[in-house]
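Box 4.2: Ligand-aware structure prediction
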Amino acid sequence: MGLGHLLHNNPDPGTDGLTIDHGAGYDVFGAVFFGGRRGRVCRRLAELSGARDGDHVLDIGCGTGYLTRRLAAVVDTGTVVGVDPSAKVLERARATTKETNCTYAVGVAESLSATDESFDVVANCLMLHHLPEELRTRALSEMWRVLRPGGRLLIGEFRPPANHLGNHLIEALTGPAMADNPLHLLEPMVADAGFVGIGSGDLHPWIRYVTASKSGVVA
Ligand SMILES: C[S@@+](CC[C@H](N)C(=O)[O-])C[C@H]1O[C@@H](n2cnc3c(N)ncnc32)[C@H](O)[C@@H]1O
């Protein structure tokens, strides 16, 4: 049994994605797994998202709100909405969020309830590999739909270790979705969804990020 089975236990999650349902356990796992660098990585992701003062930001698959809160600090007078299919993980997000410009709602990446062009920035971290492949494409179309023209996208994804031993350990611990994460498909999927100005990079220890924008006039 992988660690995943200890964290996911919702028999009716409302999505074919793999939900996190034990928020406190997930945060302990995240702290250990990132070797104390989780805060630094998420602050950097918030910067890379291009979010700025006054922006309206959507964090999809927000889990316990770790990135959501960092985004809230960056947008200051703006607002951040975190969505996740797991009502249980959102309970923890709400309980650990002091930022008043941050709210949470149940939602799924493949069918967002937000209206068209309603966000300046859409972000997600460690979420896409929780979706079956066919839902990843739908999720990216939804991200494009809810972004305003010129709005910005940030994806942070798990970057598996390059060596076999490390990868076997990841697979034993968390399962194949992380160990076999097809990062090479990320940028083509983002381009296919209609995004332009695509950039990417790595953050130590585990993250590949992709940034892009929705074609349009307003930057
Ligand atoms: C590994 S956690 C990442 C949480 C948070 N973004 C972070 O970086 O700590 C993946 C999250 O994706 C959520 N998830 C699963 N299926 C989803 C879906 N269809 N739409 C949106 N989020 C989903 C899970 O419930 C979980 O909270």
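In the box above, the bound molecule is S-adenosylmethionine. The longest strand covers residues 147-158.
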